[in-house]
Amino acid sequence: MVDVVLGSFYGDEGKGKIIDYLSKDAQYAVRFSGGNNAGHTIEVNGKQFVFHLIPSGILNPKVKAILGNGVVIDPKVLIEEIENLKANGYKVDNLYISEKAHVIFPYHLILDELEEEMRGSKKIGTTKRGIGPAYCDKMERCGIRMEDLISTDFKEMLQRNIKNKNKILKAYGYFELDFESVYRDYKKYAEILKPYVCDTTTMLHKAIKNQENILCEGAQATLLDIDFGSYPFVTSSNPTIGGVSTGSGIGAKYINEVYGVMKAYSSRVGEGPYVTELKDETGDKIRELGHEYGATTKRPRRCGWLDIVALNYAIMLNGITALAMNHLDTVGKLETIKLCVAYEYLGQREEYFRTNKDFLNNAKPIYEEFPGNFGDISNCQTYEELPLNAKKYIERIEELTNTKIKMIGIGPKREDMIIRD
Ligand code: IMO
Ligand code: MG
Questions:
Q1: Looking at residue 296, what is its pLDDT?
Q2: Is there an atom of ligand 1 within 6 Å of 125 CB?
Q3: pLDDT per position as a tens digit, 15-62
Q4: Would 355 be classed as within a structural domain?
Q5: Known catalytic residue: 284?
Q6: What Rg, from alpha-carbon coordinates, does the chain have?
Q7: Same domain, yes or no, for 235 and 350?
Q8: Per-residue b/e over 269-283, b at no fewer than 16 CB within 10 Å?
Q9: Less packed terminus of the chain by CB within 10 Å, N or C?
Q10: How far is the CA of 212 from the centre of ligand 1 (A)?
Q11: pLDDT number for residue 44
Q12: Does 141 lie in the same domain as 280?
């Protein structure tokens, strides 16, 4: 009844497209972690939507879209997304925001920026959306939740926080924030968002009792996980399977299918190790063919080959039961495709991914090669119609991961997808 969609690599695997497809059988779509550092692009009827906060499942009118307690919310961005949906004819009365979700304030954005500057050459390359500082406040227990934002306590809480943050901003040599203007803006946001705020945990528990289908939609990805990713080059939440329970309130035993979303190649945006990165023309070519520029920050993404060592790590960590692969059409435009099947580290062959810094910085990929040049596959509707070279590549990935690739993306549009049973 509860299915989960997670990113298998460093993000931007095309989770939005897979969620959009799967949500047609769901009554609920839930975001459980991250904030507007995410960027999920979906193309429906010639119109492109980019979601940073609202669950992509909302495009399905019968789906109740939930922002769970694990999400951090920039109300300004959320309101813009709501407005954009309304302007495109969506009603948005099917959006529900957890009263427990934490709110992002201007001081979080400023601190994200200042902390990155201070890191200098060791910067993380964050999206500068205030995500890290907002989660810091949550853990520090001075965060302001949605239920606070819409309550009469809000003024006092904000006053206290701005007073404290101004001390830090001053130490950075930055100008201090004016309480009144922040308060005025956020009171306005609170009025607009109030009707959406509720106890989403109970809502989901009732849905489970009623045997309704829930789709939990991951943002970010396994290797960006604060615990299991390439720390410190990670995000500040758990986009892995544990985050589903802590970020929504759904117990582990209710989780059924766990879809791992991947691309037929790989990409990373921001700093940090990346074993199969291509810093050459092939990397540039993949970036252009796959339009690999950030949906959130517009940054060019680093591109490389698919990494089975990392993929198997994601499968083990999350208990992935099925894979969904995007951009088969993109690799099919290359003459030769490489697949990293193991690493070489200190002269040894390694098949297990580790986040140890020395390991990730020095591991070298061991590749198998596959013929590309798939030709035009945009009209293929079944797996059988795919060219032999494409099938060879797919079946080798399945063999190495012992996991079925159930969905294959062959283009950006909603219908550009091959489903296998
Ligand atoms: P989706 O959901 C790709 C990366 C940032 C940076 C690191 C920390 O679209 O897959 P943060 O702002 O979270 O503190 O930045 O994490 N990052 C992502 N990269 N896709 C994302 O989301 C990302 N969200 C964060 O680039 O390296
Ligand atoms: Mg993204």
A1: 86
A2: yes
A3: 999 999 999 999 999 999 999 999 998 888 888 999 999 999 999 889
A4: yes
A5: no
A6: 21
A7: yes
A8: bbbbbbbbbbeeebb
A9: C
A10: 31
A11: 86
A12: no
Q: Which atom of ligand 1 is nearest to the CA of 39?
A: 9
Give pTM, 2 decimals.
Answer: 0.97
Q: Are residues 304 and 378 in the same domain?
A: yes
Count of domains in the chain? 2
- H or E element in which residue 30 lies: strand 28-31
Same domain membership, residue 215 and residue 353: yes
3, 20, 25, 40: the active-site residue? 40
Closest Cα to atom 15, ligand 1: which residue? Answer: 126
Looking at 133, 166, 195, the residue that finishes a domain is 195
Instruction: Compute, in angstroms, the gap from residue 330 CA to the centroid of ligand 1.
Output: 22
Ligand 1 center to 42 CA (angstroms): 18
Residue 97 belongs to a domain: no
Q: d(Cα 16, Cα 36) in Å, to the nearest integer?
A: 14
Which residue has 């890290």 as its token pair? 132
Phi, psi dihedral angles at 368 (to 5 degrees): -110, 150
Q: Are residues 317 and 250 in the same domain?
A: yes
Residue that finishes a domain, picked among 195, 226, 256: 195
- Are 293 and 379 in a shared domain? yes
Per the structure block, which two tokens stand in for 218? 């991951």
For residue 421, the model assigns a pLDDT of: 80
* ω into 55 cis (within 30 of 0): no
Residue 219 CA: nearest ligand 1 atom is 2
* List of the chain residues with pLDDT < 50: none
Q: How many CB atoms lie within 10 A of CB 187?
A: 14
On whether residue 341 sits in a domain, the answer given is yes
Ligand 1 contact via 7 beta carbon (within 6 Å): yes
Reading the block at residue 201, the tokens are 């945990």
Active site residue 108: no
Handedness of CA 312, 317, 319, 320 (dihedral sign): negative
Q: How far is the CA of 131 from the centre of ligand 1 (A)?
A: 10
